[in-house]
Amino acid sequence: MIDKSLLRALLLSLAPAIAAAQTNPAAQAARTWRQQHERAIVDELVALLGIPNIARDRDNILRNADAISALIERRGLAPKLVSVPGGNPIVFGEIKTPGATRTLVFYAHYDGQPLDPREWKSPPFDPVLRTGPVEAGGTIVPLPAPGSRFDPEWRIYARSAADDKAPIVALLAAFDAIRAAGVAMKSNIKFVFEGEEEATSINLERTLAANKALFAGDLWLMCDGPVHQTRRQLIAFGARGFTGIDITVYGPRADAHSGHYGNWAPNPALTLARLLVSMKDDKGRVLVDHFYDGIDPLTATEQRAIAAAPDVDATLMKELWLGSTDNAPRKLADVINEPSLNIRGLASGHVGNEASNVIPASATATLDIRLVKGMAPRLTQTRVIDHIRKQGFFVVDREPTKEERLAHGKIAKVTVRPGSYEAVRTPMDLPIAQEVIRVVESARGPAILVPAMGGGLPLDSVERPLGTRTIVIPMANHDDNQHGPDENLRIQNLWDGIELFAALLTM
Amino acid sequence: MIDKSLLRALLLSLAPAIAAAQTNPAAQAARTWRQQHERAIVDELVALLGIPNIARDRDNILRNADAISALIERRGLAPKLVSVPGGNPIVFGEIKTPGATRTLVFYAHYDGQPLDPREWKSPPFDPVLRTGPVEAGGTIVPLPAPGSRFDPEWRIYARSAADDKAPIVALLAAFDAIRAAGVAMKSNIKFVFEGEEEATSINLERTLAANKALFAGDLWLMCDGPVHQTRRQLIAFGARGFTGIDITVYGPRADAHSGHYGNWAPNPALTLARLLVSMKDDKGRVLVDHFYDGIDPLTATEQRAIAAAPDVDATLMKELWLGSTDNAPRKLADVINEPSLNIRGLASGHVGNEASNVIPASATATLDIRLVKGMAPRLTQTRVIDHIRKQGFFVVDREPTKEERLAHGKIAKVTVRPGSYEAVRTPMDLPIAQEVIRVVESARGPAILVPAMGGGLPLDSVERPLGTRTIVIPMANHDDNQHGPDENLRIQNLWDGIELFAALLTM
Asked: Which ipTM was obtained for this model?
């Protein structure tokens, strides 16, 4: 059951946004259009969600790119597939506005996070509509017949329902609405839909650098991520950076009998645990030497924005079933502006009924590190590796040899995962930033402004080659199980997104 | 490549055993018989290994029991299947010797450790013969034609090749040899082949208690485990006890995005790591309060036996690719007589390419604790649970509720795995113990005597209901990958086992 006081708080917070939409003519047109085409809009999304979209699944990635090209073509815009060798294609579309003096680029991505289908309540690429969050007992219902309306609290469940196919469909629906209503456009518009964001956008920068004129724009609006936990619109003027590291430590050559060798052969799971514990104190502070060195301080405007953000901690703890938080008593809105070091997963031997009486041969952890402005990915990686050495490990970047294992009591294979982002923060005081705030608020009511999203986005891969600015405009619900099993999009967020993008497309 | 100095050391250590076999007439008869029947003996083993034997796979367990019954029946002995409701059957066979005044019970088990077939080089239930250890490049060869001989360094690869189907086949082959040669037997013999030893013999004690007369014996010889790392025969006068514990700690209700919540939502993998690290110091000493309390000290005879054991540490470190050991500089033969706490496995989220950008919802560790005489399983479990509480955890023994998770910053589900053993040590000075040593040495040369095997065996489940004594007589190679992938039996160990058991069957 969803908590009632939480629901009440959320509904109250929605009210101003709904009322405010009336002041922007494009957003008004979008609402009217949407109310007449709900089923058709959802059908486009559902069809797209039915195509598996893990970045390394090339065949299906190309099917996605083709399907999105077809959606663009259906609007009379000539789509392009742009890629570098080995990369997944970017789907590109363009609206040329006569007399326009600037170009806005709307970015989204069509690939999704890797997954294990056994962890999902319904198959991840077989989208279903539910009456509410599955955790609150939401049950599967058929899509309403064309012409009839969706309950706005219903949710579509599928990988990438929220992250990040919904913005693609919402942008195109917003364009349909603007055109149908005859609302004038002022800027040239480009659509850039990437196919390997969840694989850390490894080819994005090279692709943009190789096609600078095609991708040039005065501002990139990054349509990704969730709105605020209160459900109010959020604008993020940047994002934390990212780097990923895999660490494997070693025990006996092969799993060894824990009876015959327990107490004598070192257990790699414990060795790994000790290493991980050495990296953070029990408040959540990272203990890697120099980890926080060189960080750009927040400006006064940014600090004010953080202080003005609603305090959602207590509500969110209830929602996530948390009895404590790291870095308490500091708030989420505050600590999210600092770098983090997170364990994505641990694996060693087997657990529960699958466990054997062994000392496992190895233990692996995958870490992700969120960077803030002033932290270079490579330097941070080096600092983590230095930390591992300081704990007494001999560090290699490939499987250690027998000789190395015999020569070193503690040995770790440390590999940096492909693709890292630098953090980006666009100054909130720039005229174009101020204009974006005004336009968004005219469609969605008072927005929450954050200096940077917690989640990583390849903003540096856009800004570096193109010399442009980026602002993040999310539309998904915060409780969308993004990146995990049972990812979902709340229908009202889809409707809100269409109004939001209609306003931005006409700015 | 196998290390040459190691090979030399091993061959030297084998020499006295081979020479000594000539002094025992039954062992002599067994050698002659075996040399004439190598292929037939291996065929019986291979057929048995072809039947999957995980204890919870009831259909296949019954197929194993039937196959072993058929082997016993083929020897003209009337087999019995004995079980309690819900338990896997014990296969029982009996040889009544006219005029015998004592009964020797030979125990082995036909079930095997759980496994993941993807980790095996060849399918675990499709036995293959290899020219040597697979890790040293041993390649698959066909079985020699009937009448031709096996290279004694070849190995049979399959689950339970070593642990513990080989002793079943070796015992029956030894009986064939004795009977064919007309060597007189002096004792009544019983065969007890259990079907759930690897599931911690959960029904053994109840089954024996319900059939005391059937299972009564003056001594149980437990035919399980590996011989010494030098390949010399080993006799263990007991075994460490065992108890298993699963621990799960919790993060957010469902996997949460590590960008949006990293630094704020606690990471259960780190929480688990911290808990595990609190349990042991970096030398391998267990830090759980009172863990070592109440332990029975070793007798002078036992201490002498430990001191007399060959020092294999350096050789074994090379073989297991270990650059350090726990509790160094103390030796394996010494520390194996102390209790241990081992992590069998860790699981949280996913690692490597399967990892998602999440803070995992939970993290689980499975522990096994090896007990020594004087440690009660239940009291040890309580001490571990007390330790977890002392680290600030609210402890439950089932999934915690939402309310419990909200009320407690740190919460752990701790469950004791079914089946625990108490440790057992039979005094080495008992007349029957001294007689076993003499007989074993007459077949296999100077033996290595250890107060207790490191591995668990259900000795307490035998001694308690029947009031008998137990001695462990292993035959498998120490490097048999017991309990792990690529379990194997070295052919010479099978041949040695037949001679060993022929001697013991005629004592």
From this structure: 0.83
